[in-house]
Design a protein that fits this description.
Elements (H helix, E strand, L loop, with lengths): L1 H22 L8 E6 L4 H15 L2 H4 L9 E6 L2 H10 L4 E4 L5 H7 L4 E15 L10 E2 L1 H9 L18 E5 L4 H11 L9 E3 L2 H9 L4 E6 H7 L6 E6 L6 H6 L5 E8 L5 H10 L2 H9 L3 E2 L5
Parallel strand pairs: 1-2, 1-3, 5-9, 6-7, 6-8
Antiparallel strand pairs: 3-10, 4-8, 4-9, 4-10, 4-11
């Protein structure tokens, strides 16, 4: 976490220096943009930042009315909590979140608050595809899931007596991640996740941890789940109360352990920011969202 904060501070300093450098020549034109926060949104915005910069290089190539200044779009991971805090205190232009924003956070961002929902995601209750449970059941009640993650059910034979008495290894996102809060609200309620759970710094790491442990279980994001299984099934997602996590069930809301993936700001949108936002919500952005295993939350005309 210290490395994440150091990176955010460093990028904020670059942003500040960049804005100062261009203020005198082009009427405070903002040449550098900084996103930070959700590790689920990070690969999408990072990919788009790279392709946007490579395609246009300077802002006047995006729009002739903009100055001939180099494009700089910085993206730093750190978790949804870090992202929204950075947007509130102004150390980032945009905070990335993979959860619903709280009323208190909207209030803190102020009257200029805006949110941009890029994708829909869900949390799949996933096990290693080699776990023998995959051969005997494909559905778990929410209550069973809660008991497993609370540490009340500790071995696989307690889930089903035909399974071996192997310890259940629980994998979760770290406490700053949006997924932790989503799962707490949708599944855990007043129960706390067991202190024995292994925390993961990103959703990709969480999916990798489950895939590497035949007795593991965790809430891999829909996007991370799809990417992990792209070259062959390594994760197996349980239905929850009979509902499978699919594009259709997530969009309809029938699958309830889900979340928006978005970025927010409390400042007015500058010309350069609007140009990049338009790019995010273009066909290119749509394709990148899909390539990362998520469901685009917008349509392209």
């Amino acid at each position: 976490m210290k490395k994440v904060f150091a990176l955010i501070v460093a990028l904020a300093m670059v942003l500040s220096l960049g804005s100062m450098a261009f203020a005198s020549g082009d009427e405070d034109f903002q040449s550098a943009i900084l996103f930070c926060g959700s590790t689920s949104l990070y690969p999408i915005i990072s990919s788009l930042a790279s392709s946007f910069t490579d395609e246009y290089v300077t802002w006047d190539q995006v729009d002739p009315s903009l100055p001939d200044k180099n494009i700089s779009v910085y993206v730093a991971p750190g978790g949804s909590g870090v992202g929204v805090s950075a947007a509130i205190d102004g150390t980032a232009d945009f905070g990335m979140l993979a959860r619903a924003i709280k009323d208190s956070e909207v209030e803190a961002l102020g009257e200029d608050y805006q949110c941009f929902i890029v994708a829909r995601d869900a949390l799949t209750v996933s096990v290693n595809a080699e776990n023998p449970i995959c051969d005997i059941m494909d559905d778990m009640p929410t209550e069973t899931i809660r008991q497993i993650f609370a540490g009340e059910i500790e071995t696989w034979d307690q889930v089903d007596p035909s399974l071996p008495a192997e310890a259940i290894n629980v994998y979760i996102r770290d406490l700053s991640g949006g997924a932790y809060e989503v799962f707490q609200t949708a599944v855990m309620g007043d129960s706390e996740v067991t202190a024995a759970a292994t925390q993961s710094a990103s959703m990709t790491e969480l999916a990798t941890n489950i895939a590497g442990d035949p007795w593991g279980i965790g809430y891999a994001g829909f996007g991370a789940y799809n990417k992990a299984n792209a070259d062959g099934q390594v994760l197996f997602a349980m239905k929850v109360d009979g509902i499978e996590a699919t594009t259709e069930s997530i969009i309809s809301g029938e699958y309830t352990i889900q979340r928006p993936v978005m970025f927010v700001t409390g400042d007015e949108i500058s010309a350069s920011e609007q140009a990049f936002i338009d790019y995010v919500f273009s066909q290119t952005g749509y394709d990148v969202v899909e390539a990362n295993g998520y469901i685009p939350a917008f349509e392209v005309e």
